[in-house]
Amino acid sequence: MIELKDVTTGFQSPEARWARFGPYYAMFPLDFAFEVVSKYSKRGDFIIDPFAGRCSSVYAGGVLGRHSLGIEINPVGWLYGTVKLSPADKECVIERLYQIYSRRNFYNRSVSKMPIFYRMCYSNEVLKFLLAARSLLKWQTDSVDATLMSIILVYLHGKLGEGLSNQMRMTKSMGMEYSVRWWLENGFKSAPEINPVEFIKKKIEWRYEKGKPCIFDSEIVFGDSTIELRKIVERSKETGIKFSLLFTSPPYCSLTDYYADQWLRLWLLGGPERPKAIGEKHKGRFVSKEDYYNLLDSVFGSCSKIMDNESTIYVRTDRREFTFESTMGVLKKHFPEYRYKLVDNPFKRRTQTELHGNSSKEGGEIDIILSKKRGNMI
Q1: CB-based burial label for 359 (10 Å; 0-12, 13-18, 19+)
Q2: If you ran DSSP here, which 8-state letter would residue 158 be given?
């Protein structure tokens, strides 16, 4: 049986090396995800996360021998999660890398027509490679293509020398005009000359150095939880499968637009060339308090129909009044027979709320733990 420290510290096991795969906002700390899954479920249990993000909760469940199911609406998070649960064979990924690189010169004309941002962000060679990957990789349907695309996404931008780009932040894409102005003002007028196939191959070799993770029966569904959960409820009626742990962190009301913040990676996945907020329901920033409440109501309402008679609901949320009160109210509505306790989590490092600009005095996050197990609460 794998020891938690072998996953949550260092990079010496395949499970540890893949656990941190994919820079992403609003992700659970790795040790926290493993601690919750370990404490509130047992091997062979079914666990679910309807707001999976980059899928740390599902990954922890899979490593620890739980049947784990997540739902994620953002393709970046879904891709990271899907790949780290089941990466393709290294040799196939490297072969595909060379195939994509061999097609780069078909995109010479396309490069010259792109906005100045891209031509300052990436060298000509890198940009041609990215355009080939964007056009040719079938990341939604092919495991090899998904694995290669996800690795490119990880290193799409970051500190100079650590990614394919000019100097940028790793976890959040900056606006085009802001980036161009910043590069000009700070002496980064041209992108670094990088051979993308050599760069990405080294990253692949490192990621696979310890092998592939051993994951037990785990899956990430790409879609809207309000829709996908209805299907899961129907399957639960047919199969009788119930979940013993619901472990999640919903988006925080009005703090960020994950699609706008991930626009550059979303561009590589086929999205628009210029950053913009997404108008589709449940994909952008929740400005409407009514829409936010309705999302929580729908998701936790559906989840209440698939939970075991003795189960735990573990929800990490923002402690600002509206977000917390809405989450608490919805949970009490749909899990009225559960006992609950609250655990404060003041900021120890940069977390979702702080990163996204919460300047209120209500700092930190709060965990809501509901239990219907016999005996003592926790």
Answers
A1: exposed
A2: B
How many CB atoms within 10 Å of residue 283?
Answer: 15
CA 294 – CA 224 distance, rounded (Å): 13
> Sign (positive/negative) of CA torsion 171, 177, 183, 189?
positive
> Rg for the chain (alpha carbons), in Å?
21
What is the rounded distance in angstroms from the CA atom of residue 59 to the CA atom of residue 86?
A: 10
β-pairing verdict for 339-345 and 243-248: unpaired
The whole-angstrom distance between residue 137's C-alpha and the CA centroid of its chain comes to 20
Q: What is the pTM of this model?
A: 0.91
- The residue whose two tokens read 């894409």 is 173
The bridge status of strand 339-345 relative to strand 365-371 is antiparallel
- CATH numbers and ranges of domains, the chain: 5-85+215-251+286-347+360-371 (3.40.50.150), 90-207 (no CATH)
- Residue 48, both tokens: 């679910």
Tokens for 250? 């919903």
Sheet of strand 218-222, all strands in order from the earlier edge strand to the far edge: 218-222, 67-72, 46-49, 243-248, 307-318, 365-371, 339-345
| CA nearest to 337, candidates 369, 305, 372, 373 | 372
pLDDT bracket for residue 28 (50, 70, 90): confident
| Ordered DSSP codes for 204-232 | HHHHTTT------SEEEEES-HHHHHHHH
Per-residue pLDDT, 303 = 98
Determine how many CB atoms are found less than 10 A away from the CB of residue 324: 19
